[in-house]
Write a structure and sequence with these properties.
- It is a single chain.
- With 374 residues, the protein is an alpha+beta fold.
- It has eight helices and seven strands; from the N terminus they run E-E-H-E-H-H-E-E-E-E-H-H-H-H-H.
- Strands 2-1-3-7-6-5-4 form a seven-stranded mixed β-sheet, with helices on both faces.
- Strand 1 and strand 2 form a beta hairpin.
- Helix 2 packs antiparallel against helix 3, helix 5 runs parallel beside helix 7 and helix 6 packs antiparallel against helix 7.
- The longest helix has 66 residues.
- The radius of gyration is 37 Å and the shape is rod-shaped.
- The relative contact order is 0.09.
């Protein structure tokens, strides 16, 4: 674990529109990136890949491969015209286009007459070890799926590799299966995040026992904060997958539903891990606070013993430090005024007495076992 205290920063997507905007208004997220467009046209026998900046060119290519399934992959939402053109060409409801642009959506699955729409949360650490919470959206139609991602990071490299390899049902099971494959990749990434968090928790636990310092509190709290964000993504994801399994949408076939049940189980496992790690994080914080409290108690115990030892010594020194006169100014002896001040070797007697008292107290404390508990 890095000894430095790192604050885990995460991107929070908020609605950027104005109060009173007409429903269906496309308002791009702040700092939206210029879109990169790629299309994968595939069937059992071949895969055709193409890229372009103009969505009209991409959509026109659909006619050339009419016996293929198409995955149009759009990275970046910095072009409202692009989203509007997709909506116009495919006859998509403006509210769906608004949900694509307003990247604060919870994971959900919506059915329409001839298409379906779903969203998910893509949670990951970037190169600066900051937590990024982006939105994934997808529109499903006959032989077509269009996915939207907020940034240019390649999140679905594994899906592309499977598509190129052509193994399994990915090339033959239609857009519903491709949607499942993308969602399953998002859920698998939750496990990767949780594995990293588990390693960090192990390192923090080791540090608690070896060299505990206040960075443990900060790091543990940041991990707990991260777990809450992942939980906010995975909990509605489970409900969304359940909606897809129960859906009667023809795009989600019976074969795809079998795979979705497996993804549902994975989502439940991820949620269980999140809850377990939250408990571990809370336990680490409680353990650290207990160790700090015990350490403080040990220090107070040492100081108390030292104080108890010196109390009678201070009492004796205080009495004989008052220096009341033995005689008045006429030489008369004043009765009861500390005759010990005039004893021969009185100083030595006082020192020996105080030393003896200290030794006796230490012996008594040792017999009671107080020093063994320090």
């Amino acid at each position: 674990m890095d000894s430095r205290i790192k604050r885990v920063r995460y991107k929070v997507n908020r609605h950027q529109g104005n109060v009173g905007d007409r429903p269906g208004t496309i308002v791009l997220p702040e700092g939206a990136l210029k879109p990169h467009i790629a299309m994968f046209s595939y069937n059992e026998h071949e895969l055709v890949t193409s890229e372009g900046k103009d969505i009209k060119v991409i959509l026109n290519q659909l006619k050339k491969c009419d016996n293929h399934t198409h995955w149009i992959k759009i990275n970046g939402l910095g072009n409202a015209t692009l989203i509007e053109e997709i909506g116009t060409h495919l006859n998509i409801n403006p509210l769906v286009l608004e949900d694509i642009a307003n990247t604060h959506q919870r994971p959900k699955f919506d059915e329409y007459d001839d298409y379906a729409f779903c969203t998910s949360r893509m949670v990951s650490f970037n190169k600066e070890d900051e937590l990024v919470n982006n939105q994934f959206s997808a529109i499903l139609k006959d032989n077509l799926i269009i996915s939207f991602e907020e940034d240019h990071e390649e999140f679905f490299e594994a899906v592309k590799a499977r598509l190129k390899a052509g193994k399994g049902a990915i090339r033959t099971a239609g857009p519903g299966y491709m949607c499942y494959a993308l969602i399953d990749t998002i859920i698998d990434n939750y496990f990767m995040l949780l594995a990293l968090i588990g390693d960090k928790l192990d390192a923090i636990e080791d540090k608690v026992y070896n060299s505990a310092d206040k960075s443990i509190m900060f790091n543990s709290q940041q991990i707990k904060r991260t777990l809450i964000i992942i939980r906010r993504a995975s909990w509605p994801e489970r409900d969304k997958i359940n909606d897809m399994i129960r859906s009667e949408c023809p795009l989600i076939t019976a074969e795809v539903k079998l795979f979705l049940r497996d993804a549902y189980d994975h989502c439940i496992q991820a949620m269980d891990l999140i809850e377990n790690y939250k408990e571990v994080t809370s336990s680490i914080i409680d353990l650290y606070l207990s160790m700090v409290s015990n350490r403080m108690n040990e220090i107070m115990k040492v100081l108390t013993i030292i104080s108890v030892i010196f109390i009678p010594l201070t009492f004796i020194a205080g009495i004989y430090g008052m220096n009341f006169a033995r005689q008045d100014d006429k030489g008369h002896v004043i009765p009861d005024n500390m005759p010990e001040l005039y004893w021969q070797h009185g100083y030595v007697y006082a020192i020996v007495l105080m030393f003896a008292i200290a030794i006796i107290q230490v012996f008594v404390f040792w017999k009671k076992g107080w020093f063994n508990k320090l």
